[in-house]
Amino acid sequence: LKIAKTVTFAGGRADRAAELRPDAAALRALAAREGARLIGLVGGQPLLCDPGSDPGGGPGAAPRLARLALGGAPPEGAVFLGREGAEGLWAAALPAAPEGTRAADLRGVMTELAPDEAERAVTARALLGWHASHGFCAACGAPSRPTRGGWQRDCPACGAHHFPRTDPVVIMLVTRGEEVLLGRSPGWPSEMHSLLAGFMEPGETLEAAVRREVREETGVRVGAVAYLASQPWPFPASLMLGARAEALSRELRLDPDEIESALWVPRERMARIFRGADPVIRAPRRGAIASFLLWNWLADRLG
Ligand SMILES: [Zn+2]
């Protein structure tokens, strides 16, 4: 899909400088420079510049991540995000937002961030979240410690190496003729419906996961499956794999544990939903890949 890079969180071209990660001396030298910077997260929320204290800001300007001075060495638990020009960039969890910054819900600001800023924010959130929940060796249970700029954890007791996790999730635009299949998970607000989605299982291809999830949740049989676009979704560690799927059957038999409601929505109604004019269903959140896929299906741009 040519427009896949326009997916929110997917269009960044940030320099991750992965070649520097194993070079502790190079990282120390980069951190010692006056231009070294730090992105902060407070409670998992990235710190943005307050508009008033951002020289590049002002009314209507895109929000930007605050870049704090690193101060000579990265704080405990910081991860190395890469380079900006000649300077290094780190990220760390902070106890509170320093003056001139504000913590922002990433899902609330995701469509306003420039692609490179969005990539830095999701990378920082995903990587710091991994450290926060993987402090112990999965092989022997001893406390492990971060290495390679935070892109690995090593176990001093048994020598095992551990790497940041990404959990693939299939999300599918299931169509039959001019209708698309939407569903609502238990616990969602009643007006909220979206594309069906589910975690991939070990041993599955993307195509098999799409067919299994749709069958389990709604009883619908799926034929052709095609990959469309992906989206990093660090809540906490997912990678959404957007696929198109052609339904071979139409009858719905819902699994109440997985899904509370599902329905076939004709194209005209989907357009109405996006206009905010449907009395029952609200459009999926802007910036989420479900919204991207549905919008481009409506615009006939998926072929
Ligand atoms: Zn171990």
Can you walk through the features of this model?
The chain is α+β, with helices and mostly antiparallel strands. The protein contains six helices and 15 strands. Strands 1, 2, 3, 4, 5 and 6 form a six-stranded mixed β-sheet that branches. Strands 10, 11, 12, 13, 14 and 15 form a six-stranded mixed β-sheet that branches. Strands 7-8-9 form a three-stranded antiparallel β-sheet, with no helix packed on it. The N and C termini lie close together (8 Å). It binds zinc ion. Residues 137, 139-140, 142, 155, 157-158, 160 line the site of zinc ion.
Briefly say what this structure is:
The chain is α+β, with helices and mostly antiparallel strands and 303 residues long. It is built from 6 helices and 15 strands.
